[in-house]
Task: structure prediction
Amino acid sequence: MKLQVTHRTRYTYASPVRESFNEVRLQPVSNEHQRCDSFLLKVLPAARLAHYSDFHANIIHFFELPSPHATLLVESLAKVTTKPVTNKPASAPVPLAGIAQAVRGERCFDFLQESTHVEKGPEAWRLALDVTAGYDDVWGASRAIMAHIHSQFTYTPNVTSVHTHMRDVLADRRGVCQDFAHVMLGMCRALHIPALYVSGYLYNGPRDHLLGSQASHAWCEVFIPGLGWCGLDPTNNQPTDERYIKLAVGRDYADVPPVRGHYKGTTDRRMDVEVLVTEIE
Result:
């Protein structure tokens, strides 16, 4: 599937700001499931762009704007070719009881720990045990957690923020894709299942009715020994497929915001975000 993504973020400040330093995670990765065919990043006011790869191999562009400016536009245009997911975890069950030992030699340590927005508290552990009762394999247990979040939590925009902790989402049972991903991370990690946070996009085709496709999307990947990282989307209760475009991975949202920075000046500002994902014929 060939997809095109336009992502536009515009900041409008009540009065001019200065000394703005920013980093951007908007370039899709290229891996066995997708290929970034082209990527264009535009910043206004114009700035010199540089880039590097972080600890998780995410591509990060950064720039600075020392002079006063009243608006900031960050716009990306990417063309990506995605492939069907061929690894089938259900065909090679991995016992849940032995997962802690099985991943000891893998690069999973960071994705078994608590993080900025995720904890492995008693509530998450108890809920995970209840939800996965009767499942003795890692993939089955992970899918049970995904299905529970989808059925018991209500997709409700504007009731949470990028700073909301999973414990608050557990209490309110409401949120958006970022929140549902954080809850799933906490429940999986409580059972010693390595789980990472994925930021990206979701193509909502003409016959699809998928949530979270109107903006940046978020989902999880769990580690299955022998197969690697496998994607699950608790917002839509489905494994990831060729409709998903991966931007970056981390322990939770705090590791992968699309645009992050700081500046000197007013705190009175407005942020407008537009995302459009289309299929290229």
The CA atoms of residues 123 and 170 lie 9 Å apart. The longest helix spans residues 138-152. The chain has two domains: 2-83+257-279, 89-255. The chain has a mean pLDDT of 93.
